[in-house]
Design brief:
Helices cover 49% and strands 13% of the residues. By secondary structure, the chain is of the alpha/beta class. An 8-stranded mixed beta sheet has the order 3-2-1-4-5-6-7-8, with helices on both faces. It folds into 2 domains: 8-164, NAD(P)-binding Rossmann-like Domain (Rossmann fold, 3-Layer(aba) Sandwich); 171-281, N-(1-d-carboxylethyl)-l-norvaline Dehydrogenase, domain 2.
């Protein structure tokens, strides 16, 4: 297996989160490669702005890089890993998506025959822009985990090592995401209910007094869930499956995912308002 030299890494695929993760590696002195083929103009602009280097093919990226990070929508994680395996990658593959421990283990099994080693990664917090907001939890083989940790050491994406095998970082990520994302859905549901009875202003005052730092107490932040609902919905499905695998009912999480489906039309629409999202909840469909 190739040894990570912290000089060449690949990122698949640099969206709003992945581009900021890649930027931390660039600032730390790593050359970061990406695949521009088939990507949007916005993605290309982000990649160029953060100093990412273009690869002509996945095969070139796999040969140039001793570390590849996958930061993509959860539903695409297994397919992306399969493509990397087919490209002959034999380095360290950081599976940093919001997928279940079972999915992460399946990805590790798919990459293992070609010589690649999977490090389980769980990103918490927003895209890293300032200190103390974002973490990268890591689990897996000690030697490979240490190389990934060292690559991000001192960056705005704080690496945190969890001792133990692949799957533990994913489990922690999903456990946190379950509360975080469902809380947004519950808060939106509460405001839709209050709006239906004409007491939304009173709910906002009450929540601001009792639970001011929660989504219920900060309804101005709820609209941000709309543009991200298309990514959150499959993530919640992964959470439900992960819970059911250890005997935890998935009904509540799946119900929240069903709510997010109502907002899927607002994909990446930063102009969507809370009023629009609440109308989507109350339309009866």
């Amino acid at each position: 297996m190739a040894v990570v030299d912290h000089l060449n890494a690949g990122i698949l695929h640099p969206g709003s989160m992945g581009s900021r993760v890649a930027a931390q590696l660039v600032e730390a002195g790593t050359t970061v490669w990406w695949l521009p083929g088939g990507r949007s103009a916005a993605t290309r602009k982000r990649a160029e702005g953060f100093g990412l280097r273009s690869a002509e093919s996945l095969e070139q990226l796999a040969s140039e890089c001793s570390m590849i990070l996958s930061v993509c929508p959860p539903a695409a994680a297994a397919d992306v890993a399969g493509q990397v395996a087919a490209a002959g990658f034999d380095g360290i593959y950081v599976e940093a998506n919001a997928v279940s421990p079972a999915t992460t283990l399946a990805i590790a099994a798919a990459l293992r025959p070609g010589g690649a080693t999977v490090v389980d990664g769980g990103i918490t917090g927003p895209p890293p822009r300032r200190p103390g907001t974002s973490r990268l939890y890591l689990s897996g083989d000690d030697a490979e985990v240490e190389q990934v940790r060292a690559a991000f050491d001192g960056t705005l994406l704080t690496p945190c090592v969890i001792k133990g095998p692949v799957g533990r970082a994913s489990a922690l990520k999903l456990a946190f995401a379950a509360y975080n994302k469902v809380s947004y859905v519950l808060a939106a549901h509460s405001y839709a209910l209050a709006d239906g009875y004409g007491v939304s202003a009173e709910l906002e005052e009450l929540a601001g007094h009792v639970v001011p730092r929660t989504p219920l107490g900060r309804p101005d932040r709820l609209a941000s869930a709309g543009p991200r609902a298309w990514r959150w919905e499959p993530e919640l499905r992964e959470i439900a499956q992960a819970g059911e695998a250890v005997g935890v009912p998935g009904a509540v999480v799946n119900a929240a995912a069903d709510v997010l489906l109502r907002w899927s039309a607002h994909k990446d629409d930063d102009q969507v308002t809370l009023a629009q999202l609440l109308a989507d909840l109350a339309d009866g469909s």
